DNA sequence: ACCTCGACCTGGGCGC
DNA sequence: TGCGCCCAGGTCGAGG
């Protein structure tokens, strides 16, 4: 779930409430999400630090301090929410028709692995059902340091993401264009949903060799990537099951998806039945008529 | 160096 | 109602 638009949605929803707050306590219920980092180091490294800017590069959310950064990667089911004690807790509720979970803030449960208490009594909770996500601090405090530590490619919402950058990266790859776009060292932030959507809008088959995407297709793909990401952010992210923003709200971008998850349904453009296959190890949906 | 595949973890949905 | 099986948005390391 959490691809660039979802992570950006989380960032925006918590940035203001936590800015200027100082961490007074860090509770780690399940050290698995720290991936080997000693719990005591994690706690002592954070307590006393004051949160400033909330940053994002690709799918990575990070909070820089003077000489280090708190990093959060949501994996598949991670949720970072800001809980205010004076507000009433509600359980996770499933919408009857859409099946989507939402909550207006909830107390920590068995999936809430880390709680970071701030000096205004509010709390940042990291909750992650499948535990593919990670939370930890690193010694870098600037974007360049973070980007090189995690070997992240350009963030597509920065000016570094140009048609020529896209062209150069695709030209040198022998894999399917779908797999190339999922490579975070090339472009940081795209995942299975937004890649399928962008390739559909650009009219390019996911199985096409990356090096065979050229000329006009580059311009179309570049524009399509920006379009789907911006649309996703404007819709508050795509909630297929677990995604909520920092305030517990589900997104609604799933309502506007053109191909992802619509295998067997008809193409919105031409009516052809959408196909399904595997590229880059991921389930992929496309229209064999509209995508060449 | 590049690429593919399985592993990591839990829960939901479906068929029997 | 219950069990087994398959599937899921992301990454990482092993091995070809």
Give the structure's gist in a few sentences.
The chain is 26% helix and 20% strand.
What can you see in these coordinates?
By secondary structure, the protein is of the alpha+beta class. 26% of the residues lie in helices and 20% in strands. It is built from seven helices and twelve strands. The chain has helices at residues 4-18, 39-46, 143-149, 163-171, 177-182, 192-202, 216-234, and strands at 23-28, 55-57, 60-64, 69-73, 78-83, 93-94, 101-102, 112-118, 123-128, 134-138, 275-279, 282-286. The strands form four sheets. It has a four-stranded antiparallel sheet, with helices on one face. A hairpin with a 6-residue loop joins strand 6 (93-94) and strand 7 (101-102). The longest helix is centred in the C-terminal third of the chain and has 19 residues, at 216-234. The model has no long low-confidence stretch (mean pLDDT 93). The structure holds a DNA duplex (16 and 16 nucleotides).
How are the SSEs ordered, and which strands pair?
Elements: H1 4-18, E1 23-28, H2 39-46, E2 55-57, E3 60-64, E4 69-73, E5 78-83, E6 93-94, E7 101-102, E8 112-118, E9 123-128, E10 134-138, H3 143-149, H4 163-171, H5 177-182, H6 192-202, H7 216-234, E11 275-279, E12 282-286
Antiparallel strand pairs: 1-8, 2-3, 3-4, 4-10, 5-9, 6-7, 8-9, 11-12
Helix pairs in contact: 1-7, 4-7, 6-7
The structure holds a DNA duplex (16 and 16 nucleotides).
- In round numbers, the mean pLDDT is 93
Q: What is the C-alpha radius of gyration, as a whole number of Å?
A: 20 Å
Number of strands: 12
Strand order of the largest sheet: 1-8-9-5
The low-confidence parts are none
Structural class: alpha+beta
Helicity range: 25-40%
Oligomer: single chain
Write the H/E string, N to C.
HEHEEEEEEEEEHHHHHEE
Shape category: globular
Strand content: 15-25%
The profile of the biggest β sheet is: 4 strands, antiparallel
Cα end-to-end separation: 27 Å
Task: Please report the number of helical segments.
Answer: 7
């Amino acid at each position: 779930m959490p691809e660039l638009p979802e992570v950006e949605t989380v960032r925006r929803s918590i940035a203001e409430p936590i800015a200027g707050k100082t961490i007074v306590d860090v509770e780690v219920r399940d050290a698995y999400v720290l991936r080997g980092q000693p719990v005591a180091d994690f706690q002592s490294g954070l307590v006393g630090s004051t949160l400033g800017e909330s940053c994002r590069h690709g799918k990575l959310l990070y909070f820089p301090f003077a000489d280090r950064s708190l990093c959060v990667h949501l994996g598949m089911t991670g949720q970072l929410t800001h809980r205010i004690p004076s507000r009433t807790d509600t359980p996770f509720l499933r919408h009857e028709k859409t099946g989507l979970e939402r909550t207006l803030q909830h107390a920590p449960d068995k999936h809430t692995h880390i709680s970071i208490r701030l000096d205004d009594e509010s709390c940042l909770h990291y909750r992650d059902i499948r535990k593919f996500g990670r939370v930890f601090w690193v010694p870098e405090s600037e974007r360049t340091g973070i980007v090189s530590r995690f070997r992240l490619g350009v963030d597509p919402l920065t000016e570094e993401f140009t048609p020529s950058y896209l062209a150069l990266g695709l030209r040198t790859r022998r894999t399917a264009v779908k797999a190339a776009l999922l490579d975070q060292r090339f472009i940081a932030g795209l995942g299975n949903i937004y890649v399928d959507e962008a390739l559909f809008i650009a009219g390019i088959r996911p199985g096409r060799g990356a090096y065979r995407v050229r000329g006009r297709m580059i311009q179309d793909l570049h524009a399509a990537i920006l379009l789907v990401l911006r649309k996703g952010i404007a819709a508050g992210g795509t909630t297929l099951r677990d995604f909520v923003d920092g305030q517990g709200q589900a997104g609604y971008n799933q309502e506007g998806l053109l191909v992802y998850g619509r295998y067997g349904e008809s193409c919105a453009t031409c009516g052809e039945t959408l196909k399904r296959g595997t590229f880059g190890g991921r389930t992929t949906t496309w229209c064999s008529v509209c995508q060449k």
